[in-house]
Amino acid sequence: MSALLPTTMPSMELTINAAKEAELRDKGKILVGGAPASDAFA
């Protein structure tokens, strides 16, 4: 997932949580990046 604006970053957490609830989180990798994303956020 790529965040182009800081306002889109909270949606990444929602998407990852949805993947966990659907039991899909451990079936692949989720990459997080974008200009406003930092190592601490990832």
Structure write-up:
This protein has 42 residues and is mainly α. The chain has one domain. It has one helix at residues 9-21. The longest helix has 13 residues, at 9-21.
- The topology string of helices and strands comes to H
Number of strands: 0
Over the alpha carbons, how many angstroms does the gyration radius reach? 11 Å
Oligomer: single chain
* Helix content, binned percent: 25-40%
> Shape, please?
elongated
- Unreliable runs, pLDDT <50, ≥5 residues? none
Q: Estimate the mean pLDDT confidence.
A: 87
- Helices, by number, come to 1
Overall SS class: mainly alpha
How can the largest sheet be summarized?
Answer: none
Question: Kindly, what is the distance between the CA atoms of the first and last residues, rounded to a whole number of angstroms?
Answer: 11 Å
Strand content: under 5%
Detail the topology: elements first, then pairings:
Blueprint: H1 9-21
Descriptors:
single chain, about 40 residues, 1 helix
